[in-house]
Design a protein that fits this description.
InterPro entries: Polysacch_pyruvyl_Trfase. It comes from Sinorhizobium medicae. Keywords: Transferase. GO terms for molecular function: transferase activity. It is built from 17 helices and 16 strands. It is an alpha/beta fold. It folds into 2 domains: 195 residues, no CATH class; 186 residues, 3-Layer(aba) Sandwich (Rossmann fold), CATH 3.40.50. The strands form 4 sheets. Strands 4-1-5-6-7-8 form a 6-stranded parallel β-sheet, with helices on both faces. A 6-stranded parallel β-sheet has the order 13-10-9-14-15-16, with helices on both faces. It has a two-stranded antiparallel ribbon with strand order 2-3. Helix 5 runs parallel beside helix 7 and helix 9 crosses helix 13. The radius of gyration is 21 Å and the shape is globular. The two termini are 14 Å apart.
Length: 392
Amino acid sequence: MRPRILVTGIPGHYTRLANGAQGLSVSYSERQKQPETKEEFLQELRNISNTGNYLIGEGALRAIAPHAKQVPFWHLYNCSQNGVGLEEFNANFDICVFTCANLLRKGLSADAEAEVLGKLKMPIVMLGIGLQNRRDLENSLPEGTKRLLDVLKEREHYFLTRGFETAGFLKDQGFSYVQPTGCPSIYLMPHNMRASLKKLPKVPVGKARTIFSGYLGANHDCIVDAAALAPEGSRPQYVIQDEFLHFDMNVEANGDGRVYDSASGVMLGELSYPGTERLKTPFDVRTFFDTNQWRAWASSMDFNFGRRFHGSIIAMQAAVPSLMVAVDDRMREMLGYTGLPAIDAVEVDKADNRAEFVADHLAGLNASELVDRYSDRERTFRSALREIGIGQ
């Protein structure tokens, strides 16, 4: 008999339409959101914290057996808090898949996760768990995260990690089933992912319409990228993930009271962030709350040069050749495991001619090897899901 699968944790973009839940049932609105005022836009961004996270939930749900049921984590937490309890979920499910990301980090105490997963009396699959910074693992983790790990030690558990470093840490903590598989977002559209890899060595750097991503408001890195790589006379393209929440990037409404156009994803009104004076032509800035809209727009572009992991993955899902810049331990772990094409931030930032450096790097790539490595990692991921009993 196939296991009854409960999926929760980081959601896909579809959960934006959830407007209520009772027991095992979740209701969804048929009215699409259009968060165009500043207040509505920022609230929509806060709801997910980082729009790149939508790719994690979406990738997980598509990889798991189609009879799995997705329940928003906030509903499980509310049931745990308000006295209803989780008995109905324990009676109707055999295994829980918890989709996660860089859960092992200093700035996040997983108190809510520990409470909910502690009350679910079933095996737990931690899908896509990873670290933010290696030092976070060397020093003490937050108390809530320690409690979560203790909860998982008390029952059957499965850790499918983002890479080798997280897997090694969890094995050192005494966990038995630990396997690096990468982030589930990587395997959502494998044919397009392979197509993007095949195109990469032939990208005409400096002439290709390029998507940029990074940390506007925190540093000038992607501004320097755009100045070096965007075609002469073009308007460089930048996609937001969480900059308005965490960095010195701001937007004010236009004369119509709008900061955002829902149809195109374009930011309206007056944008401000440090370093704008370094660009001959300002960025054309977009935000996407729907991953289908994001991919559709990305498919019209020629190249992605990204300092954001998921901002680059969604371009690859649209078959756009992408080169990532590894900026931190989190990205280095994921890229080190998957072998997806990347250059380290230290190397690109010290290059005398950034465009020539990138062009030379791309020309030296072996597309066949990239495709073979990706296909091997995809097989490992899907085999692990089937071994646990939750795969298709």
